[in-house]
Amino acid sequence: MAPNRILVVDDSPFMRKIISDLIVQDPQFTIVGTAENGEEAIQSVMKWKPDAITLDLEMPLMNGLQALQHIMKDSPIPVIMLSGISEENTRDTIKALQYGAFDFIRKPSSAISNDIHQVGELLIEKLKIAVLTKRHQPVIHIQESEESNTVPPIEPLFINKAEPRKFEDTPPKPAIPVISERKKPLLQPSKEMPQARATAPLHKPDQDPVQSKQVPVKKPKSALTPPSTPPKEAAAKAKTVQSKVLQPAAGGVKRSPGTAASFRHIVAIGTSTGGPRALHEVICSLPANFPSPVLVVQHMPPKFTKSLAQRLDSFSPLQVVEATNGEKVSAGVVYIAPGGHHMELGKDTDGYRIKLTEQPLRNGHRPSVDVLFESLIDHQELKRHAVIMTGMGNDGTKGMMQLAQSGAVSTIAESEETCVVYGMPRCAIEGGYVRTVLPLQHIATELVNAVFK
Is residue 365 among the annotated active site residues? Predict the structure, then answer.
């Protein structure tokens, strides 16, 4: 098999050499060309048609963010962003991920950097996954506004050549905006990623995509099986939920932490590769009066999680913050676990609080989804809702199993058709404790329906 052809883009000849040398250490890759600015990158993509690109953010003439938008519009292929750790770089990296970049790595500072080998290993790992994806990504046009609470339309990121399936039946209008249907799988199965078993099928051609896919769940004897809802009752419930959700918060202003400390539900979300865009769609689709806190683990290094929280906060009706140790947990607030720290839900005499630790990595990550999920097990006085979305590996599978066994109300996984990488959701589904499998654009609706019951 011919090696995958990589284009390296950086304005520094020294850095182009470092990145190229790191990539060709793996015989699966070869360097098809290099470019020193965004304009050259666009021309090189048209000329060489590489399988993937590494793209620096800061370059003359045309920077990496501008070049990325052109590439995603004209010749969409997997792009790995190379980012510094300055505040501006982290902000632009989050934008790049929402505009269609596959993933990012922290840019090595020099050839003698202590972590140069770790950076190389991480880059090779991300490239191997990236070249397996068949990508066609239009640019996501997001109106830049620091105070806007309007949910912008998000175009599909992954589309194959086949025409989209058409469904005749239209469900009742959901409580939140429903984004246009995604198309089929992003990541082709490999030997390392076995096919999901037959007990957890994805959409069949005659299925309505809005209806959640119910997956057989291994339940302990004490677990309760929720009764099925007749279609007429389900429609009435949907209308009731919608009327509750559409009531705006007072004055259209986000609630401040501490103004809604009393709650009966808790939502926990775990994601990795592709997570920033997935979180944007889910969190920005939740209503301002959502009566539950939302705890989020996104696999991401320190500093980048702060920029992610700020970016989401500028678009979401809810308040989005990077979590701090000991802060009180309130409804209507989204807490992003800071990079380099595990996040847990704690409780004292004054209510629920965020607990951050620097305990060892779990499943190769800190923060870890398993750690977050497991921290909810003892809080059975709350109605718990766990969600696993796009990402590599199996982080969250064990925690979701334990949550389901302890009586969690909802265990939700993103379906293969909208995942950037169908790793974490697949492992959770195969674990047998995912009750509901949904395309990304319907996860928020499912949460709204569950929490507003």
Answer: no
